[in-house]
Specification:
The protein is α/β, with parallel strands linked by helices and 216 residues long. The chain contains 6 helices and 11 strands. This is BON domain-containing protein.
Length: 216
């Protein structure tokens, strides 16, 4: 697909999402690499724009340069944002809130601590993402499983085989301890993300090295 046609498709996808204010988002494309620039009114919308662009056929990579400009003149105090973050973690049943620490500086949230599962690390970030006042999130939560189960490679290969999005993809899985390496090729950025999710979903995984290429 030509870059001009791909840019048109991405702009249409962004404008089609009713919960996204795409008026100040600029899109440029070069050899399938998409750059998102401009500004949005919240961190949640910044992430949403990236996810929407990644789902468009033909996108090979994304450079995220969107700035978060909070609506209005009022800026939430860091202690207010921190209190919201702690409450959001506490009320999310998938997050072990007692194992996670929150630090906020000028709207930039840093998460630290140890969890056993990758989904807990992702859930903690997702709980903070929509909060008012958040400008960015640095997720430094460490995955520290109590043990690595046997047959990890087989579990990941079975998960890849079950995923309809990955049908006919050429993915090879290598496991060293709790570290997983994905090699081979997929057809889109969305397929690459699906393969990563499958690997992270396996119990005991602490690291996923993605060496997948996106074939034209």
């Amino acid at each position: 697909m030509k870059d001009t046609a791909l840019r048109h498709d991405i702009l249409e996808a962004l404008e089609f999402e009713p919960s996204l204010d795409a008026a100040d988002i600029a899109v440029s494309v070069e050899d399938g690499t998409v750059t998102l620039a401009g500004h949005v009114p919240s961190f949640a919308q910044k992430r949403m724009a990236e996810r929407i662009a990644a789902r468009v056929q033909g996108v090979r990579a994304i450079a995220q340069e969107l700035e978060v400009r909070l609506a209005g003149e009022h800026t939430d105090a860091d202690d207010e944002i921190a209190a919201r973050a702690v409450a959001a973690l506490r009320y999310d049943g998938t997050v072990p809130s007692d194992a996670i620490q929150v630090k906020v500086e000028k709207g930039r949230v840093t998460l630290t601590g140890d969890v056993e599962w990758a989904y807990e690390r992702h859930a903690a970030e997702a709980a903070i993402e929509p909060l008012a006042g958040v400008r960015s999130i640095f997720n430094q939560i460490v995955i520290a499983p109590k043990h690595v189960p046997a047959g990890l490679r087989g579990k990941i290969e079975a998960a890849l085989a079950r995923d309809a999005l990955l049908h006919n993809s050429d993915i090879r899985v290598d496991v060293a301890g709790a570290s997983v390496t994905l090699e081979g090729s997929v057809r889109s950025l969305a397929e690459r993300a699906a393969a990563e999710r499958a690997a992270w979903s396996a119990p005991g995984v602490t690291t996923v090295v993605d060496r997948l290429a996106i074939r034209p």
